[in-house]
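Could someone model flavin-adenine dinucleotide with this protein?
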Amino acid sequence: MSISQEALNVAARVEAFVRETIIPFEQDPRRDHHGAPTDALVMELRELARSAGVLTPHIRSDGSHFNQRETAIILIKSGLTPLGMLACNTQAPDEGNMYLIGKVGHPDLKERFLKPLVEGRARSAFFMTEPADLNGAGADPSMMITTCRKDGNHWVINGKKAFITGADGAKVGIVMAKSEAADSAGGACMFLVELPDPAIRITAVPNTIDSSMPGSHAEITIDDLRVPADQMLGEAGEGFKYAQIRLSPARLSHCMRWLGGCIRAQEIAVDYTNRRMAFGKHLIDHEGVGFMLAENMIDIKQCELMIDWCASILDAGSLGTVESSMTKVAVSEALMRIADKCMQVMGGTGVTDKTIVETIFREVRAFRIYDGPTEVHKWSLAKKLRRDWRSTQ
Ligand SMILES: Cc1cc2nc3c(=O)[nH]c(=O)nc-3n(C[C@H](O)[C@H](O)[C@H](O)COP(=O)(O)OP(=O)(O)OC[C@H]3O[C@@H](n4cnc5c(N)ncnc54)[C@H](O)[C@@H]3O)c2cc1C
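Reply:
Sure, complex below.
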């Protein structure tokens, strides 16, 4: 699929909005005690995005999505600062959640749960991972210990969750649980729930290396949560299939947004090294520095190409599981190299909060873990190599 002029125009508008209106808010002190922007700040930025016509810019007013290649050029621009994605409502986990509800939800669920998200009036959370000390779902989601059982017209959910981004303050939740039923209702299920709900308790919100996501990453206890049966997302037992529908585009959109962040970090590092002198010349004229920024240039281009390649596979109708694994590994690892080099060439300034480089560095470190750690993707790619080889014998 090609990239339309309409999408190019939207991307240009998003870029101008983020650079001119949102970047000046980077030093705004309104942060919660985990360092994440407060909801008050996010809502103020959203109003600015609404006025500028760039709120939820990857979804058209008729509800249709731009294709993945088009989404890429828009989301990269919204990611030029972490506040940009929040202002434009392209951030995780909402962007992936909107995509999933749009694909799997029936019309009533869309009206009730999707509409407020698309309109930027609510935040959402995706409840899949569980505490490591209970040996729950983590890198291996099939280890899910949260259960659901049918009780008349309701499902009853019990369990514990961990690292649930944005749960604190979210109004919409997608909860995953496993049904032990022996019939077709057995297996992983997904439910849409209104938040807050007294049966979903936040027990802790640990401090983490990243700090850009409102609500941070909560630990949760679910006690006898009763969900009307018609709030099941899709069919019983198909939860992991739907997680897969969400995962490829969601991990690709993380690549898009954080590539935007690293493009900006590179701009800041290039500016710094063109102004700062050492040993009688500008830093960029020292080969050790210039080469690092040149390597970043190459990494950035390779990330763009890989994202565009994976996006075109998804646009062609494939789930893109293999391609999104390859892209997620390649891009998240490259972004880490880029952010690290930007920080290094900026000396002490690079590790301060005077620029966004330090924030980007911390964000992309966490990205090597969520939406599948690098090693898990490589392991599943190696398994594919083994399968393919076997099929030729
Ligand atoms: C910032 C952040 C935000 C998150 N947001 C959400 C969210 O909103 N919702 C949600 O449900 N989850 C969320 N997560 C959870 C995330 O998806 C998990 O952290 C991830 O799946 C890894 O699970 P785990 O932490 O339990 O690690 P573990 O399962 O304990 O794995 C630990 C490490 O073991 C290694 N490993 C595991 N399996 C293999 C293998 N087969 N081969 C080689 N090495 C392996 C990897 O290096 C892995 O990092 C978030 C995590 C972070 C860090």
